[in-house]
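Technical annex, item 7. During the second reporting period the consortium partners agreed on a shared format for inverse folding records so that results from different sites could be compared directly. Each record opens with the tokenized structure and is followed by the designed sequence. A conforming record, contributed by the partner at site C, is shown below for reference.
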């Protein structure tokens, strides 16, 4: 039995993100994610101006009149959404938790796939893949994906992106577009991410909260807890030097992460809980479209 408040939340996300997709993102998505190639559609009689290289000589010989083969783009794609639901995702100091932003992003991506008649599937991962919903089409399926991200209670606290990617690559037999939604607070995932990108179109989506970089200057000690390890520690929020050091360390972490994506040739999206996510998604689509036209 699904709680009424969860159904209401799913419905709210569907309405909100559905409007974004219909009005803004559907065309952007289609311009960036092309089909796997061309597939045969039909044979028709030759008309002046047709490319003579398309003539089907077997049909031409059989009918006594020239015919040409027509092809259509094989448009159907598979979109896999990998959503990090480790304990660090249950954090947010703006209007939403990182987990809630991830749910809305998953909805936007799944609805974009639905709008273009593509399949969408979901991986929920922490220290490994905990839940997998195979790619399918249809509105009911997309609502199921959204509901799963919102309602899922992870069994583990930590993040192991590398191990999770290894599992995903084993499960996904055919090439797909793999959106990897996480805060990337992990280490030693570079190798598995490179290998995954050789087989699939991997697009990292980095979700962060402003308080992770900039701690408040309260003039007192802060009692903080690492949500994944449970380790507690004190921070002197009255020390400008210590606050600046923390900000520099976190900014460097994000810079190194983005440098790594760049070296791997991966397009990525950067999302923050305190800002609308539509602009970064549109910027990603348009930057990739420009690069593909070169």
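Designed sequence (site C submission):
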């Amino acid at each position: 039995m699904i709680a009424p408040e969860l159904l209401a939340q799913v419905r709210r996300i569907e309405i909100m993100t559905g409007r974004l997709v219909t009005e803004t993102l559907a065309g952007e998505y289609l311009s960036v994610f092309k089909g796997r190639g061309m597939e045969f559609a039909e044979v028709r009689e030759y008309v002046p101006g047709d490319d003579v290289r398309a003539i089907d000589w077997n049909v031409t010989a059989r009918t006594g009149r020239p015919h040409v083969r027509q092809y259509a783009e094989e448009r159907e794609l598979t979109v896999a959404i990998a959503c990090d639901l480790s304990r660090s995702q249950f954090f947010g100091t703006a209007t939403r938790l990182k987990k809630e932003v991830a749910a809305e992003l998953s909805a936007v991506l799944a609805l974009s796939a639905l709008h273009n008649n593509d399949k969408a599937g979901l991986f929920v991962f922490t220290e490994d893949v905990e839940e997998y919903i195979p790619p399918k089409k249809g509105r009911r399926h997309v609502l199921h994906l959204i509901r799963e991200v919102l309602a899922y209670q992870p069994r583990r606290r930590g993040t192991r992106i590398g191990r999770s990617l290894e599992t995903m690559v084993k499960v996904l037999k055919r090439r797909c577009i793999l959106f990897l939604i996480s805060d990337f607070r992990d280490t030693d995932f570079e190798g598995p991410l490179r290998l995954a990108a050789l087989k699939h179109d991997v697009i990292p989506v980095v979700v962060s909260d402003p308080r992770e970089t900039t701690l408040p200057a309260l003039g007192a000690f802060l009692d903080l807890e690492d949500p994944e390890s449970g380790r507690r520690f004190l921070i002197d929020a009255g020390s400008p030097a210590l606050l600046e050091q923390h900000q520099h360390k976190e900014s460097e972490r994000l810079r190194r992460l983005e440098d790594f994506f760049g070296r791997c040739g991966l397009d990525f999206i950067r999302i923050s809980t305190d800002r609308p996510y539509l602009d970064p998604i549109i910027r990603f689509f348009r930057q990739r479209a420009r690069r593909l036209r070169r």
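The chain has a mean pLDDT of 87. Residues 38-74 form one domain. All partners now use this format for quarterly exchanges.
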